[in-house]
Amino acid sequence: MAAPGVRLITGLLVLLLASAALTACRSTTFIHPPTPQQQLGLERLAQRFEKIAFFSEFSEGEHRLRKRMGPVTWHLTVTASGDAERALVRVLHRLSKLTGLSFTKAKMPERAVLDILIKPRPELIDHLLADGNTNQRFIYKTLCWGRMRGQVSGRIEHILVAIPNHLNAAEVETCLWIEITQGLGLPNDLEDLKPSIYSDAPYLTVGSLPWYDAILVQTLYDPRLQPGMSRSQAMPLARVILKELMAKRRNTAMAS
């Protein structure tokens, strides 16, 4: 049973000091993505941003905007073979480009803003259950988990990502994309586009995000949007930002 203030959202556990949310892929296998849908207009993207940033499929009502406002130090704990750190660095490099945040390896692991655990699945489940903020209805049927802590002001202070170590390299990278990106402030799921990291279905995501997911991250991390903004305050600005980003994308495509 989730603690008061806990909201389950597919893909990641998000905990603000006054509230919390779990996201978890409710499937047992990853899916190779279909051909991406490319024809998306401003209003469709604005609706996606609104539903993903301000709502949860597991709680009523809306919450205020959440985002990280400072540098992100990270620490990786791995009980597995393979080069998970290299995949992590690739993901963080791309997210740095989208958000403007700096991601650096923590000199003091206990003070890391982003903690990534890649361990045997039973150990991760025990870790999440011991924390007391996990919806047990879904924890045994999920592929990977995450948890975000922050202030009631909406400023994100800590992100935890938990990935089972039996997954292959592509699956680990997919979990990194899903959990870190959602942990940066876009935690809700939405079944309107596939492939997408915001879909319940865990589509393999390697190399980069689909453009229609990446543009939402860019929108959230535009400095005009501030943590703690209400939906009514933020959405007019979000539409302006999305319009600018779409125009830039079209101009880049025309020039290439």
Please explain how this structure is put together.
It is a single chain. This protein has 256 residues and is an alpha/beta fold. The chain has one domain: Collagenase (Catalytic Domain) (3-Layer(aba) Sandwich), CATH 3.40.390. 37% of the residues lie in helices and 17% in strands. The chain is built from 7 helices and 8 strands. The protein has helices spanning 42-54, 84-99, 121-131, 136-139, 169-183, 211-220, 231-255; strands spanning 6-8, 13-16, 19-24, 72-78, 103-105, 114-119, 145-150, 156-164. Strands 1, 2, 3, 4, 5, 6, 7 and 8 form an 8-stranded mixed β-sheet that branches. Strand 7 (145-150) and strand 8 (156-164) form a beta hairpin. Helix 1 packs across helix 6, helix 1 (42-54) packs across helix 7 and helix 6 packs across helix 7 (231-255). The longest helix is centred in the last third of the chain and has 25 residues, at 231-255. The protein is globular, with a radius of gyration of 17 Å. The termini are far apart. The relative contact order is 0.22.
